[in-house]
Amino acid sequence: MRAPLAAMIALAVLISTPPAGADEPVRPERFDPSDYPPPHARWNLLLAGAGTTAAWYGAAVGFSYLWPDAPGADDLRIPVAGPWMALADTGCADDDPGCSTFTVVLRAILTTMDAVGQTGGVAVMVEALATPTQVATPQRKKLPPVRLRREGAKFEWRPVPYTAGKDGLGLGIAGRF
To answer: Which of 40, 95, 97, 127 has the most CB atoms around its CB within 10 Å?
Structure first.
């Protein structure tokens, strides 16, 4: 008799308890829309896309030699468009008595992966060409000191920029003798 009474009390407590009123904390976003990647990022992205396309193309050519009699095997040797063309021609060869549904499905899955991989690599290369980057800042060259010799004495001087007041700039000469 006590167990049903305890269960009823527990159910009443669960039903009557209001939900917690605290909100989840929100992480502050630190996003600067004017912050772009450095200029060399474009070339890295271009190389990554070319490498991805080449790797998937190599796999497609390998599959074309693995199943040379399969329909669409010659199409796999065409970069990027070949796997898409081979997908339209899946099935068993007419003179292949050992062809099974498993083999056809496996070839279709691998051909689809090749098609998506090659197309994705080309998309990454296009993205590399369209990616905005930071403007390269030229490196300031430090001017070497100009050395003049006067009767055995060593005299060095160099032009030095300086600020003059709030809005002024100037050019001075610093030296040592």
So the answer is: 127
The residue among 137, 134, 129 whose CA lies nearest residue 39 is 134
pTM: 0.57
Question: What dihedral angle (degrees, nearest 10) is formed by the CA atoms of 48, 50, 56, 62?
Answer: -130
Point out which residues pair with 158 in neighbouring strands.
174
The tokens describing 168, both together, are 């002024």
Helix (H) or strand (E) holding 140, with range, is: none
Alpha helices in 17-100 (DSSP H): 40-66, 81-87
Which burial class, exposed, middle or buried, applies to 82 when counting CB atoms under 10 A from its CB (0-12, 13-18, 19+)? buried
- How many other CB atoms sit within 10 Å of the CB of residue 58? 11
175 bridge partner residues: 157
Backbone angles phi, psi at 173, to 5 degrees: -125, 125
Q: Single out the residue of 61, 65, 110 nearest to residue 82, CA to CA.
A: 61
Question: Percent of the chain having pLDDT more than 70?
Answer: 84
Residues paired with 157 in a beta bridge: 146, 175
| pLDDT per residue as tens digits for the range 147-171 | 555 555 566 677 778 777 777 778 7
User: Taking the CA atoms of the chain, what radius of gyration do you get in angstroms?
Assistant: 36
